[in-house]
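As noted in the main text, all predictions were made from sequence alone. Below is one such record, for CHAT domain-containing protein.
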Amino acid sequence: MGRHVYGRVLALAGRVASRRRLPDQGPLASGSTRRIAALIDDYLERHEDLPGKLSTELLEHEGLLRGLSLADAHDAGNAGIAWARSVIMRVSLEHGLAREPVSGDNKLAQLHELLGRQYVQFGDWSTASECFTGAALRWTRRTHKRKALSQVIVCCLRGGDTASASALLNMVEGLVSHRPSQHFLRITGKLLSAEAEIDARDEEQVHEVRRLGVINYGYLASCLVRRLAAEGHFHRALRVTTRTLDRLRQDQADTWVIGDLEQQAASIHNALGEHEQALRLAVAAWAKLDAPRYQACSRAQRQSTWGNFAPSRYAALRAAVELGDGRALAELIESCRLQSLVATELEIDHREEQEKVTATGVRLSNKGEPRLTDGGMSLSTAVFAAVNDAFTSTRLNRPAPVAYQGTSLLAPHYSEQPGAGPAPDPCALDDALPQGVFWSSHVENGVMFWFLAEDGKPVAHGMTDLREDEHLQPVLRSLAGCSESAEPETWNLPPHRAESGEHYEPLLHLAQWRSPEEQIMSSTVGGLLPPPLVDLLSEAAKRKEPLRLTLAPAREFGCVPWPIAVVPGSSDRLVERATLRTWTSAPTQLARKARAPHPPSSPVPFLIACDNPDGTLRERTTGSAVSLAWEVLGGPTSASPATRQALLSALHRIDPKAHGLFFYRGHARPDLAWSGLPLAGGDPLRAGELLGSVQDGTPLLPMPARVIVSYCSGSGGSLTGGEGVGLAAGLVQSGAEQVVATSVDVLDAPFTEAFEDMLIKGMLVPDLDHAEVLRAVQLRMLREWKVFSLRGRPARRADIREPHPIIWTAYQAY
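Prediction:
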């Protein structure tokens, strides 16, 4: 026993520190808890032969206390790991192999409540309610149990789970004598009843709920405001909002609680026609509610957060349109593109935490999901959700703020967020916009917001209600399903239930030019083009010269075959009237513009071809243009396998400023966080590596001036609409001036090889722009498509030899 006296003293200190009552908002850790956690961690590092019970108790205390500091440092991923580990240690130590739900344990209750607060900030109301349920089952203190039950109900209510909220309400109604709790239950009951009328007493007594804590008060008020606004009582809703916000700010409530009410207020101001106030509140809420995504957290948590502040984005975009402020709209659309879903993700090393957790009887599957071993302990599903989210967490780089015409709406608000750090200089959209016509769009709440510029100058802007087009969702969903490279569940379109006759099969229906189904599909996507853009296309047709058009489509349109979109008011296809380019992002465009162009008429040698490196595609035919490359790297059984080291060596033998061509053909992984170049040997080059550089500024993976990437979702644009992420942007950042890449999954067919050969030959011609090369090839395919359709031959997925547009429209010039 004498050997571990200091360890037992630390365990006692951990018990005392763990009993400290935590604040309802603000910093969780104190100086003493940070010191005790550090001492325990150091002791555990130096003593690996501790008795099992002492080791488990120390790990339990260290997990709780360290998690408090991590949460204060806005590291949700590692805080979640620490707290989930503490729960597992606690159950292992105090309750053994209990099969029944553990009750009467204030320490477990506190840990569940901490996890619940983490999920509230991500807007994951379902998991948050699960966590608070675990707390309510375990608290022995009446006041804490009452508060936790209220948190369960308000999270269900806020998340739209009215059935669960009603069931819980029926269980506890009539059993509570605490006055604020009575007010909470009565108001909640009214909110759950469509017939109940919200009166002045409810608007007054909601503020009594403040005594039940910030989460209960803030989100119950938010639900009350939403109900009042839905019934048209806008001024009453604003009065409740203003008073609640004043009190929350006095209490120094967490920013995401305040942001939820601010976005409600912004929507109300829009409804009242007070668009300046709406824009001001919406961008403030936008920054507050978006901030948690830049902590270490899982992709699921980021998606939940993205949906949580959708009302802020919609209110801001709507206000900008109503104010006629095209400058603001351009900034907000570009900000949405940069922020949407993912940017460069860096992995967090969780190996040490995994070892600590798995030592307790929990194992991780090969998918990173926690699993109990045989004879495992009784743990809530919320704990496993927390472990899974923690072990799959990554850290998201905050994109540079966007400024247009000298000002930025969002940048000041992001710089004010806790843990924001030094604010980077805003990225000037003015300097990044291309020559010719630029059209950007973003979809929110079923409405397409769009901005149009010509030669960098604003031309028009507006919004289009997509809910009025009966064909749009069936067409978009069929295209997404065919390519298998989009996620309709992330789209900001209303829920859709397919009706009879709405089913389209792009592989079959697009094979026949001007068939009824092809006309519906091509005309439907053409209908997305706003009238001012259609006018510019018509003027270009009269001049008999193609319009230089750069598309920055919303992610909902990532699978659209733009070249064959029918221009409204004509029978022409878009590629017949325009030379199409696809936008990556303002930072990427600025990086490209900063580089000196190559001299005119410079020869374009075919430097490297990396063809089918993992051996999963069909072998090329003899005489393919790929064989013209100076260095050809192939599959695992080829003479020169395209291993990671072989490709790196080949790229570094190239002058970083070389005016040559690099070609890649292979399979892609569907997870955008892992987008990159699969190689022989199973060790890919990831998109994030393309963004790195050495001290002298030379890219880690230098790319020649011209690049062709042909594989499933080669641009990384199908999932996110090309918002400055994925491979295309990385290739430009690494030195490529002209990139042609696939936007969706491309079929591995004989025609694909023939089309790639045509692209390679065109890209080897000096002084030809890559967009012009692509247009010339696609116009040829358009003519041949018409001929192929007259033959009436059926399309076969595995053996397409004719110019099927499902293949040739997937290539885009970046």
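The longest helix spans residues 770-791. DSSP finds 33 helices and 20 strands in the chain. These features were considered when defining construct boundaries for the mutagenesis experiments described in Section 2.9.
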